[in-house]
Amino acid sequence: MRRVPAAVRSHGHLSIAGAVGRRADGTIPDDIEEQTEIAIGLIAEILRLEGFDLSALVDVTSYHVDIHRHLPGFSKIEARLIKLLYPTWSLIGVTGLANPGPLVEIRATAAYPDAA
Questions:
Q1: Theoretical Cys-Cys bridge with 52: which of 12, 24, 47, 83, CB 3.0 to 4.6 Å?
Q2: DSSP states of 30-56
Q3: How does 68-86 read in b/e, with b if 16+ C-beta sit within 10 Å?
Q4: Residues 61 and 46: beta-carbon distance below 8 Å
Q5: Which residues pair with 110 in a beta bridge?
């Protein structure tokens, strides 16, 4: 199996691959709130390793299984964790993700301060 990097630097930006709400032990919670918290936490950890926090995000795309059912729970966690300045954010409803179990996958782009 080919290893894909979690993030790649390019032209003043950090592109973060899709993060899902998988616990450290490999299990996936049943509820969207915990999945969202874990996925955003993974993105926050990648940013932390680069010396950033979530405020460095400039663009986010999230893919949602059964979006109308899960959007309220997702939005509750997203609003608690993502503060001003908000990144642009596209929410896309999908019938499924690459692996069964996750209800949301989040990919993001952060900007390095000197890239403005």
A1: 47
A2: SSHHHHHHHHHHHHHHHHHHTT--GGG
A3: eebbebbeebbeeebeeee
A4: no
A5: 14, 57
